[in-house]
Write a structure and sequence with these properties.
The protein is of the alpha+beta class. The longest helix is centred in the C-terminal third of the chain and has 22 residues, at 230-251. The chain is globular and about 75 Å long. The chain has helices spanning 13-22, 24-32, 43-57, 69-72, 100-115, 117-123, 127-143, 155-165, 169-173, 187-206, 230-251, and strands at residues 2-3, 9-10, 64-66, 93-98, 145-147, 179-184, 255-256, 262-265, 268-271. It folds into 2 domains: 2-227, no CATH class; 229-277, no CATH class.
């Protein structure tokens, strides 16, 4: 493992796995955070792209970095269909923003959005909003992180979209790429995210019954994979069943409360799952 002249980390999946087993802390701080992303050819282009976000958001460029396969050239997501897969032509750029003030602004705006009566009603009626709400709670509580694709229509979300849409991606990467943004409260949130994923990856690779492919000297060839977990599929099926049940109840004359959590039918009150109160 070494850094080339442009600051790219050069590491194989096998080397990374060995380092993850021996010293995850060193791997994260010495290899996964510093340096030029594999997705960007030169150090100067990397600086130009970070400077765009720094100027647009008012955040110091040292608090911005590209993570994951964008950084090292292959995925370390602890998923059997994605791990060790090479960064490809269609791959996204994953930008991490580490800034307590910006995180707090998002947190306040999300709280105001969720306290709105109209929006709370939508949460229990629109599957995508309910899933995003659950995902926001998990990632904020576990990693002090907001993923921009989980955010509702708030000012910070619109600002992030504007920055992403005007970013000089082609000039800095050579081709147009979609981009995701992840806003962390502090650097320990970034560390915890990496530490969690590496722990899950090492545990799965150690499990003889796991279908996780072993780390080799070269990344796996890139192919597009639907980025959805089994539990997410099951959740969508649950949402669909719930929507069908809600529709059937409304046809029978059920009247729902303002937040969509309870309904009245034939003089009796039930919760959203149909349990009599």
């Amino acid at each position: 493992m070494y850094f080339d002249q442009q600051g790219h980390i050069v590491v194989t999946p096998k080397q990374l796995h060995q380092l993850a087993v021996e010293n995850r802390k060193r791997l994260i701080h010495a290899a996964l955070l510093p340096g030029t992303p594999a997705a960007i050819p030169t150090h100067d282009q990397h600086f130009d792209l970070l400077q765009h976000f720094a100027d647009s958001l008012g955040i110091h460029p040292n608090n911005l970095f590209f993570k994951g396969s964008t950084k090292i050239g292959f995925s370390i997501a602890p998923k059997s269909k994605k791990v060790w897969m090479a960064f490809g032509p269609e791959s996204d750029l994953d930008l991490a923003i580490v800034d307590a003030e910006f995180f707090s602004r998002i947190d306040n705006e999300v709280g105001m959005w969720e306290r709105s009566l109209e929006n709370r009603q939508k949460l229990f009626r629109v599957n995508s909003l309910l899933k995003a709400h659950k995902d926001r709670g998990y990632h904020k509580g576990t990693f002090d992180c907001y993923r921009f694709f989980d955010l509702p229509n708030i000012d910070c979300m619109n600002k992030l979209n504007e920055c992403i849409n005007t970013a000089p991606v082609v000039q800095c990467c050579g081709i147009q790429r979609p981009m995701n943004a992840f806003v962390f409260r502090h650097w320990w949130g970034v560390y915890n995210r990496y530490d969690h994923d590496l722990h899950c990856l090492c545990r799965a690779l150690k499990d003889k019954n796991s279908q996780m492919p072993a780390a080799e000297d070269e990344p796996r060839p890139h192919e597009e994979v639907l980025d959805i977990d089994i539990d997410e599929i099951q959740l969508e099926m649950t949402f669909a069943d719930r929507d069908e049940r809600i529709g059937a109840l409304e046809e029978k004359g059920a009247i729902w409360d303002a937040e969509g959590q309870f309904f009245a039918l034939d003089g009796k009150c039930y919760d959203a799952d149909g349990e009599l109160l």
